[in-house]
Design brief:
single chain, Rossmann fold
Length: 448
Protein backbone atom coordinates (compact mmCIF):
# COMPACT_ATOMS: atom_id res chain seq x y z
CA UNK A 1 0.00 0.00 0.00
CA UNK A 2 1.25 3.51 -0.78
CA UNK A 3 0.74 6.83 0.87
CA UNK A 4 0.30 9.98 -1.16
CA UNK A 5 1.20 13.48 -0.14
CA UNK A 6 0.21 16.47 -2.22
CA UNK A 7 -2.11 19.42 -2.55
CA UNK A 8 -5.12 19.80 -4.79
CA UNK A 9 -5.04 22.19 -7.72
CA UNK A 10 -7.01 25.38 -7.47
CA UNK A 11 -10.59 25.28 -8.72
CA UNK A 12 -9.78 27.44 -11.69
CA UNK A 13 -6.84 25.37 -12.88
CA UNK A 14 -6.96 24.16 -16.49
CA UNK A 15 -4.46 21.40 -15.89
CA UNK A 16 -5.30 17.73 -16.27
CA UNK A 17 -6.30 15.54 -13.32
CA UNK A 18 -3.70 15.25 -10.59
CA UNK A 19 -2.09 11.89 -9.98
CA UNK A 20 -2.41 12.35 -6.24
CA UNK A 21 -5.09 14.28 -4.37
CA UNK A 22 -4.40 14.58 -0.65
CA UNK A 23 -3.98 17.22 2.05
CA UNK A 24 -0.83 19.25 2.03
CA UNK A 25 1.93 18.34 4.45
CA UNK A 26 2.53 20.44 7.51
CA UNK A 27 5.82 22.21 7.98
CA UNK A 28 8.07 20.53 10.50
CA UNK A 29 11.04 21.91 12.38
CA UNK A 30 14.25 20.51 10.87
CA UNK A 31 15.84 17.90 13.09
CA UNK A 32 19.45 18.06 14.14
CA UNK A 33 21.65 15.82 12.02
CA UNK A 34 23.08 12.80 13.87
CA UNK A 35 26.79 12.48 14.47
CA UNK A 36 28.10 10.51 11.44
CA UNK A 37 30.33 8.15 13.41
CA UNK A 38 27.73 7.41 16.06
CA UNK A 39 25.07 6.86 13.39
CA UNK A 40 27.28 4.46 11.38
CA UNK A 41 28.18 2.45 14.48
CA UNK A 42 24.52 2.15 15.44
CA UNK A 43 23.48 1.31 11.88
CA UNK A 44 26.09 -1.42 11.51
CA UNK A 45 25.22 -2.89 14.89
CA UNK A 46 21.58 -3.17 13.82
CA UNK A 47 22.64 -4.82 10.56
CA UNK A 48 24.73 -7.40 12.39
CA UNK A 49 21.69 -8.27 14.47
CA UNK A 50 19.58 -8.65 11.32
CA UNK A 51 22.18 -10.93 9.72
CA UNK A 52 22.35 -13.13 12.83
CA UNK A 53 18.57 -13.30 12.94
CA UNK A 54 18.32 -14.30 9.28
CA UNK A 55 21.03 -16.97 9.63
CA UNK A 56 19.23 -18.34 12.68
CA UNK A 57 15.94 -18.49 10.82
CA UNK A 58 17.53 -20.22 7.84
CA UNK A 59 19.35 -22.69 10.08
CA UNK A 60 16.13 -23.70 11.79
CA UNK A 61 14.46 -24.13 8.42
CA UNK A 62 17.40 -26.20 7.15
CA UNK A 63 17.28 -28.53 10.18
CA UNK A 64 13.56 -29.12 9.74
CA UNK A 65 14.10 -29.75 6.04
CA UNK A 66 16.99 -32.14 6.78
CA UNK A 67 14.88 -34.15 9.20
CA UNK A 68 12.12 -34.41 6.61
CA UNK A 69 14.61 -35.55 3.96
CA UNK A 70 16.79 -37.72 6.20
CA UNK A 71 15.94 -40.80 4.19
CA UNK A 72 17.29 -39.23 1.00
CA UNK A 73 20.86 -37.93 1.38
CA UNK A 74 21.26 -38.00 -2.41
CA UNK A 75 18.45 -35.48 -2.73
CA UNK A 76 20.13 -33.18 -0.20
CA UNK A 77 23.38 -33.39 -2.17
CA UNK A 78 21.49 -32.60 -5.39
CA UNK A 79 19.86 -29.53 -3.85
CA UNK A 80 23.17 -28.22 -2.52
CA UNK A 81 24.88 -28.71 -5.87
CA UNK A 82 22.01 -26.98 -7.67
CA UNK A 83 22.18 -24.13 -5.14
CA UNK A 84 25.89 -23.53 -5.74
CA UNK A 85 25.57 -23.75 -9.52
CA UNK A 86 22.63 -21.33 -9.55
CA UNK A 87 24.54 -18.77 -7.48
CA UNK A 88 27.51 -19.04 -9.85
CA UNK A 89 25.52 -18.92 -13.10
CA UNK A 90 25.44 -15.25 -14.01
CA UNK A 91 24.51 -13.71 -17.37
CA UNK A 92 24.74 -10.23 -18.78
CA UNK A 93 21.47 -8.26 -18.34
CA UNK A 94 19.69 -7.26 -21.54
CA UNK A 95 16.96 -4.94 -22.79
CA UNK A 96 13.62 -6.72 -23.20
CA UNK A 97 11.55 -4.22 -25.18
CA UNK A 98 12.34 -3.75 -28.86
CA UNK A 99 14.38 -0.58 -29.39
CA UNK A 100 16.97 1.07 -31.60
CA UNK A 101 19.98 3.24 -30.81
CA UNK A 102 19.40 6.63 -32.42
CA UNK A 103 22.31 8.53 -30.88
CA UNK A 104 25.59 7.10 -29.63
CA UNK A 105 28.59 8.56 -27.82
CA UNK A 106 31.53 6.76 -26.18
CA UNK A 107 29.84 7.02 -22.75
CA UNK A 108 26.08 7.05 -23.44
CA UNK A 109 23.51 5.95 -26.02
CA UNK A 110 19.99 7.16 -26.68
CA UNK A 111 17.59 4.26 -27.22
CA UNK A 112 14.21 4.75 -28.86
CA UNK A 113 11.49 2.44 -27.48
CA UNK A 114 8.68 3.93 -29.57
CA UNK A 115 6.65 1.33 -31.42
CA UNK A 116 6.31 1.88 -35.17
CA UNK A 117 2.58 2.49 -34.97
CA UNK A 118 3.00 5.33 -32.46
CA UNK A 119 5.77 7.44 -34.03
CA UNK A 120 3.30 10.08 -35.18
CA UNK A 121 1.30 10.20 -31.94
CA UNK A 122 0.48 13.75 -30.83
CA UNK A 123 2.11 13.40 -27.43
CA UNK A 124 5.24 15.01 -26.03
CA UNK A 125 8.08 12.45 -25.90
CA UNK A 126 9.42 11.09 -22.62
CA UNK A 127 13.04 10.36 -21.80
CA UNK A 128 14.15 8.24 -18.83
CA UNK A 129 17.54 8.79 -17.16
CA UNK A 130 18.39 5.53 -15.33
CA UNK A 131 20.46 5.21 -12.16
CA UNK A 132 24.22 5.29 -12.68
CA UNK A 133 25.81 3.51 -9.75
CA UNK A 134 27.93 0.75 -11.20
CA UNK A 135 25.05 -1.25 -12.69
CA UNK A 136 23.44 -1.68 -16.09
CA UNK A 137 20.83 0.84 -17.22
CA UNK A 138 18.53 -2.09 -18.05
CA UNK A 139 16.99 -1.80 -14.56
CA UNK A 140 14.33 0.39 -16.18
CA UNK A 141 13.43 -2.54 -18.47
CA UNK A 142 14.15 -5.09 -15.75
CA UNK A 143 12.10 -8.00 -17.10
CA UNK A 144 9.21 -8.60 -19.52
CA UNK A 145 6.88 -8.59 -16.49
CA UNK A 146 8.44 -5.65 -14.62
CA UNK A 147 9.41 -2.84 -16.95
CA UNK A 148 9.27 0.84 -16.10
CA UNK A 149 9.45 1.65 -19.81
CA UNK A 150 6.51 -0.64 -20.64
CA UNK A 151 4.48 0.98 -17.87
CA UNK A 152 5.25 4.47 -19.23
CA UNK A 153 4.12 3.43 -22.72
CA UNK A 154 0.94 1.87 -21.34
CA UNK A 155 0.12 5.17 -19.61
CA UNK A 156 -0.24 6.77 -23.04
CA UNK A 157 3.30 8.22 -23.26
CA UNK A 158 3.94 6.18 -26.37
CA UNK A 159 6.96 8.13 -27.63
CA UNK A 160 9.50 6.98 -25.07
CA UNK A 161 13.29 7.05 -25.02
CA UNK A 162 15.99 6.15 -22.51
CA UNK A 163 19.62 7.07 -22.10
CA UNK A 164 21.89 4.10 -21.53
CA UNK A 165 25.03 4.78 -19.51
CA UNK A 166 27.89 2.77 -21.03
CA UNK A 167 30.65 1.19 -18.92
CA UNK A 168 33.59 3.54 -18.45
CA UNK A 169 36.85 2.76 -20.25
CA UNK A 170 40.30 4.28 -20.27
CA UNK A 171 39.11 6.47 -23.15
CA UNK A 172 36.13 7.85 -21.19
CA UNK A 173 37.66 8.25 -17.73
CA UNK A 174 37.70 12.06 -18.10
CA UNK A 175 34.05 12.40 -19.11
CA UNK A 176 32.63 15.35 -17.16
CA UNK A 177 29.28 16.57 -15.87
CA UNK A 178 29.22 18.97 -18.83
CA UNK A 179 29.48 15.99 -21.20
CA UNK A 180 26.48 14.29 -19.58
CA UNK A 181 24.38 17.46 -19.75
CA UNK A 182 25.34 17.91 -23.39
CA UNK A 183 24.24 14.40 -24.34
CA UNK A 184 20.88 14.94 -22.59
CA UNK A 185 20.41 18.20 -24.52
CA UNK A 186 21.37 16.54 -27.82
CA UNK A 187 18.94 13.71 -27.10
CA UNK A 188 15.99 15.98 -26.35
CA UNK A 189 16.70 18.17 -29.38
CA UNK A 190 16.71 15.03 -31.50
CA UNK A 191 13.36 14.06 -29.95
CA UNK A 192 11.82 17.39 -30.96
CA UNK A 193 13.21 19.97 -28.55
CA UNK A 194 11.08 19.36 -25.46
CA UNK A 195 10.41 16.26 -23.38
CA UNK A 196 9.04 14.82 -20.19
CA UNK A 197 12.14 13.95 -18.17
CA UNK A 198 12.08 11.03 -15.73
CA UNK A 199 15.13 10.63 -13.47
CA UNK A 200 15.77 7.60 -11.27
CA UNK A 201 18.24 7.92 -8.37
CA UNK A 202 21.48 9.41 -9.81
CA UNK A 203 19.58 10.04 -13.02
CA UNK A 204 17.27 12.19 -10.91
CA UNK A 205 19.79 14.71 -9.66
CA UNK A 206 21.26 14.82 -13.17
CA UNK A 207 17.78 15.51 -14.56
CA UNK A 208 17.28 18.23 -11.95
CA UNK A 209 20.52 19.98 -12.87
CA UNK A 210 19.59 19.77 -16.55
CA UNK A 211 16.10 21.15 -15.91
CA UNK A 212 17.55 24.09 -13.98
CA UNK A 213 19.99 24.93 -16.78
CA UNK A 214 17.68 24.12 -19.71
CA UNK A 215 14.13 24.74 -18.41
CA UNK A 216 12.84 25.32 -21.95
CA UNK A 217 13.64 21.67 -22.80
CA UNK A 218 11.62 20.11 -19.95
CA UNK A 219 7.83 19.72 -20.11
CA UNK A 220 7.50 17.81 -16.82
CA UNK A 221 10.09 16.56 -14.35
CA UNK A 222 9.61 13.25 -12.51
CA UNK A 223 12.12 12.19 -9.86
CA UNK A 224 12.20 8.80 -8.13
CA UNK A 225 14.53 8.02 -5.24
CA UNK A 226 16.75 10.93 -6.30
CA UNK A 227 18.97 12.66 -3.72
CA UNK A 228 18.52 16.42 -4.06
CA UNK A 229 19.41 17.47 -0.50
CA UNK A 230 22.20 14.95 0.07
CA UNK A 231 22.41 15.70 3.81
CA UNK A 232 18.72 15.41 4.70
CA UNK A 233 17.32 12.49 6.68
CA UNK A 234 19.28 9.52 7.99
CA UNK A 235 21.42 7.96 5.26
CA UNK A 236 24.43 5.69 5.63
CA UNK A 237 25.91 7.05 2.38
CA UNK A 238 25.58 10.64 3.56
CA UNK A 239 27.02 9.79 6.99
CA UNK A 240 29.99 7.87 5.57
CA UNK A 241 30.77 10.66 3.08
CA UNK A 242 30.66 13.30 5.81
CA UNK A 243 32.95 11.16 7.98
CA UNK A 244 35.51 10.27 5.31
CA UNK A 245 35.53 13.51 3.31
CA UNK A 246 35.34 15.56 6.49
CA UNK A 247 38.50 13.97 7.86
CA UNK A 248 40.48 12.99 4.74
CA UNK A 249 39.00 15.05 1.94
CA UNK A 250 38.80 13.30 -1.42
CA UNK A 251 41.89 11.17 -0.79
CA UNK A 252 40.00 7.86 -0.20
CA UNK A 253 37.88 8.38 -3.30
CA UNK A 254 40.86 9.35 -5.43
CA UNK A 255 42.61 6.20 -4.27
CA UNK A 256 39.70 4.05 -5.42
CA UNK A 257 39.69 5.77 -8.80
CA UNK A 258 43.45 5.30 -9.12
CA UNK A 259 43.04 1.59 -8.36
CA UNK A 260 40.49 1.47 -11.19
CA UNK A 261 42.88 2.95 -13.70
CA UNK A 262 41.17 6.33 -13.66
CA UNK A 263 37.62 5.04 -13.20
CA UNK A 264 35.50 4.12 -10.20
CA UNK A 265 35.33 0.30 -10.23
CA UNK A 266 31.81 -1.04 -10.42
CA UNK A 267 32.81 -3.94 -8.17
CA UNK A 268 33.71 -1.46 -5.44
CA UNK A 269 30.30 0.19 -5.75
CA UNK A 270 28.63 -3.23 -5.54
CA UNK A 271 30.62 -4.12 -2.43
CA UNK A 272 29.51 -0.86 -0.86
CA UNK A 273 25.84 -1.57 -1.62
CA UNK A 274 26.12 -5.06 -0.13
CA UNK A 275 27.86 -3.73 2.98
CA UNK A 276 25.06 -1.22 3.54
CA UNK A 277 22.47 -4.00 3.84
CA UNK A 278 24.31 -7.32 4.21
CA UNK A 279 21.18 -8.99 5.55
CA UNK A 280 19.58 -8.67 2.09
CA UNK A 281 22.48 -10.53 0.48
CA UNK A 282 22.46 -13.26 3.13
CA UNK A 283 18.70 -13.63 3.00
CA UNK A 284 18.63 -13.79 -0.80
CA UNK A 285 21.14 -16.65 -0.97
CA UNK A 286 19.59 -18.62 1.91
CA UNK A 287 16.09 -18.23 0.49
CA UNK A 288 17.40 -19.57 -2.81
CA UNK A 289 18.47 -22.76 -1.03
CA UNK A 290 15.08 -23.07 0.64
CA UNK A 291 13.26 -22.61 -2.69
CA UNK A 292 15.75 -24.27 -5.03
CA UNK A 293 13.07 -26.62 -6.39
CA UNK A 294 10.63 -23.78 -7.10
CA UNK A 295 11.22 -22.71 -10.75
CA UNK A 296 9.39 -19.40 -10.28
CA UNK A 297 11.54 -18.38 -7.32
CA UNK A 298 14.74 -19.48 -9.04
CA UNK A 299 13.85 -17.44 -12.12
CA UNK A 300 13.13 -14.31 -10.08
CA UNK A 301 16.42 -14.84 -8.24
CA UNK A 302 18.33 -15.25 -11.51
CA UNK A 303 16.88 -12.11 -13.09
CA UNK A 304 17.78 -9.99 -10.07
CA UNK A 305 21.25 -11.44 -9.59
CA UNK A 306 22.05 -11.07 -13.28
CA UNK A 307 21.37 -7.34 -13.01
CA UNK A 308 22.74 -6.73 -9.51
CA UNK A 309 26.02 -8.64 -9.84
CA UNK A 310 26.85 -7.47 -13.38
CA UNK A 311 28.79 -4.27 -12.69
CA UNK A 312 30.28 -1.53 -14.83
CA UNK A 313 32.82 1.18 -14.06
CA UNK A 314 31.97 4.89 -13.70
CA UNK A 315 34.09 7.63 -15.31
CA UNK A 316 36.59 8.72 -12.67
CA UNK A 317 36.42 12.48 -13.27
CA UNK A 318 32.62 12.45 -13.15
CA UNK A 319 32.58 10.32 -9.99
CA UNK A 320 35.02 12.58 -8.11
CA UNK A 321 33.04 15.65 -9.18
CA UNK A 322 29.77 14.33 -7.79
CA UNK A 323 31.35 13.16 -4.52
CA UNK A 324 32.88 16.57 -3.91
CA UNK A 325 30.10 18.86 -5.11
CA UNK A 326 26.98 16.87 -4.24
CA UNK A 327 27.57 14.14 -1.64
CA UNK A 328 30.10 16.11 0.40
CA UNK A 329 29.46 19.83 -0.09
CA UNK A 330 25.75 19.51 -0.99
CA UNK A 331 25.97 22.41 -3.41
CA UNK A 332 22.82 21.64 -5.44
CA UNK A 333 20.25 22.31 -2.73
CA UNK A 334 22.41 25.08 -1.23
CA UNK A 335 22.31 26.97 -4.52
CA UNK A 336 26.11 27.11 -4.75
CA UNK A 337 26.57 24.76 -7.70
CA UNK A 338 28.16 26.16 -10.85
CA UNK A 339 28.74 24.23 -14.08
CA UNK A 340 30.58 25.68 -17.04
CA UNK A 341 30.40 29.14 -15.51
CA UNK A 342 26.60 28.93 -15.05
CA UNK A 343 24.86 28.86 -11.69
CA UNK A 344 22.47 25.94 -11.20
CA UNK A 345 19.39 27.62 -9.75
CA UNK A 346 16.58 25.17 -9.03
CA UNK A 347 14.15 28.10 -8.90
CA UNK A 348 14.43 28.15 -12.70
CA UNK A 349 12.45 24.88 -12.74
CA UNK A 350 8.79 25.88 -13.15
CA UNK A 351 7.35 22.84 -14.93
CA UNK A 352 5.09 20.27 -13.19
CA UNK A 353 7.17 18.29 -10.67
CA UNK A 354 6.38 14.72 -9.60
CA UNK A 355 8.28 13.10 -6.73
CA UNK A 356 8.27 9.40 -5.76
CA UNK A 357 10.07 8.23 -2.61
CA UNK A 358 10.36 4.85 -0.89
CA UNK A 359 9.15 4.59 2.70
CA UNK A 360 12.08 2.34 3.67
CA UNK A 361 14.64 3.69 1.19
CA UNK A 362 18.01 3.51 2.95
CA UNK A 363 19.90 4.93 -0.05
CA UNK A 364 17.76 8.03 -0.58
CA UNK A 365 15.44 8.66 2.39
CA UNK A 366 12.31 10.64 1.43
CA UNK A 367 13.53 13.98 2.91
CA UNK A 368 16.44 13.99 0.45
CA UNK A 369 14.01 13.88 -2.46
CA UNK A 370 11.15 15.99 -1.15
CA UNK A 371 13.56 18.89 -0.51
CA UNK A 372 13.24 19.55 -4.25
CA UNK A 373 9.68 20.82 -3.76
CA UNK A 374 10.88 23.75 -1.64
CA UNK A 375 13.69 24.73 -4.01
CA UNK A 376 11.98 24.80 -7.40
CA UNK A 377 9.88 27.60 -8.86
CA UNK A 378 7.01 25.25 -9.73
CA UNK A 379 3.67 26.36 -8.23
CA UNK A 380 2.55 24.15 -5.36
CA UNK A 381 -0.55 23.08 -7.31
CA UNK A 382 1.74 21.46 -9.90
CA UNK A 383 3.86 19.49 -7.41
CA UNK A 384 2.97 15.89 -6.61
CA UNK A 385 4.60 13.94 -3.79
CA UNK A 386 4.09 10.22 -3.38
CA UNK A 387 5.55 7.66 -0.97
CA UNK A 388 5.70 4.03 -2.09
CA UNK A 389 5.89 1.17 0.35
CA UNK A 390 9.33 -0.37 -0.05
CA UNK A 391 13.00 0.37 -0.50
CA UNK A 392 15.28 1.91 -3.09
CA UNK A 393 15.56 -0.53 -5.99
CA UNK A 394 11.88 -1.39 -5.73
CA UNK A 395 11.05 2.15 -6.88
CA UNK A 396 12.43 1.40 -10.35
CA UNK A 397 11.66 -2.29 -10.89
CA UNK A 398 9.48 -3.47 -8.00
CA UNK A 399 6.14 -4.99 -8.91
CA UNK A 400 4.23 -2.98 -6.31
CA UNK A 401 5.63 0.41 -7.34
CA UNK A 402 5.14 -0.32 -11.04
CA UNK A 403 1.54 -1.41 -10.54
CA UNK A 404 0.40 1.06 -7.88
CA UNK A 405 2.63 4.13 -7.74
CA UNK A 406 3.97 4.84 -11.21
CA UNK A 407 0.64 4.62 -13.13
CA UNK A 408 -1.04 7.65 -11.46
CA UNK A 409 2.15 9.67 -11.77
CA UNK A 410 2.49 8.91 -15.47
CA UNK A 411 -1.21 9.60 -16.00
CA UNK A 412 -0.52 13.07 -14.59
CA UNK A 413 2.43 13.47 -16.98
CA UNK A 414 0.20 12.33 -19.85
CA UNK A 415 -2.34 14.98 -18.92
CA UNK A 416 0.37 17.63 -19.47
CA UNK A 417 1.58 16.05 -22.72
CA UNK A 418 -1.35 16.07 -25.15
CA UNK A 419 -3.37 18.81 -26.85
CA UNK A 420 -6.18 20.12 -24.67
CA UNK A 421 -9.56 20.62 -26.40
CA UNK A 422 -11.16 23.94 -25.52
CA UNK A 423 -13.08 23.74 -22.25
CA UNK A 424 -11.96 20.18 -21.51
CA UNK A 425 -9.21 18.63 -19.42
CA UNK A 426 -6.77 16.42 -21.28
CA UNK A 427 -5.72 12.90 -20.56
CA UNK A 428 -7.57 9.75 -19.68
CA UNK A 429 -6.92 6.81 -17.43
CA UNK A 430 -4.81 4.09 -19.02
CA UNK A 431 -4.63 0.42 -18.08
CA UNK A 432 -1.15 -0.65 -16.96
CA UNK A 433 -1.91 -4.13 -15.66
CA UNK A 434 -0.61 -5.93 -18.72
CA UNK A 435 2.57 -3.87 -18.70
CA UNK A 436 3.37 -4.93 -15.14
CA UNK A 437 1.98 -8.44 -14.98
CA UNK A 438 3.23 -10.64 -12.17
CA UNK A 439 2.83 -14.38 -11.50
CA UNK A 440 0.52 -14.87 -8.52
CA UNK A 441 2.10 -16.30 -5.40
CA UNK A 442 5.70 -15.90 -6.56
CA UNK A 443 7.99 -15.33 -3.55
CA UNK A 444 9.76 -11.97 -3.45
CA UNK A 445 13.52 -11.88 -3.77
CA UNK A 446 15.17 -9.77 -1.02
CA UNK A 447 16.83 -6.76 -2.60
CA UNK A 448 18.73 -3.76 -1.19
Amino acid sequence: MSTAIGSSPSTGSTRGPRAVDAPATTTETPQAQPDPLRYLLSYNARNIGKVVSEVGRATRTAWIDSIQRIASPADAARRNLLWWSTMADRREPAWHLKNEVVLSTPFAALRDFTEDGHRDDDVIPTIVLPPQAGHSSTVIDYSPQQSQLAMIRAAGLTRVYALEWKPATSATRNVSIEDYLTVIDRSIRRMGGKANVVGDCQGGWLATIFAALYPERVNTLTLAGAPIDFHAGESVISASTKLMAGTMGLAPYKALVAMGGGNMPGRAVLSNFISIQPQSEVSRQLQLLENIDDPMHVERYRVFEDWFKHTQDIPGAFYLWLVENLFWKNKLIAGDLEIGGRKVDMAEITCPLLLLAGSTDHITPPPQLFAAADAVGTPERDITRRVATGGHLGLFMGRDALRQDWPPLMEEVYAHSTPKPAGKSSGRRRSTVRAVADPAGTPRVPAP
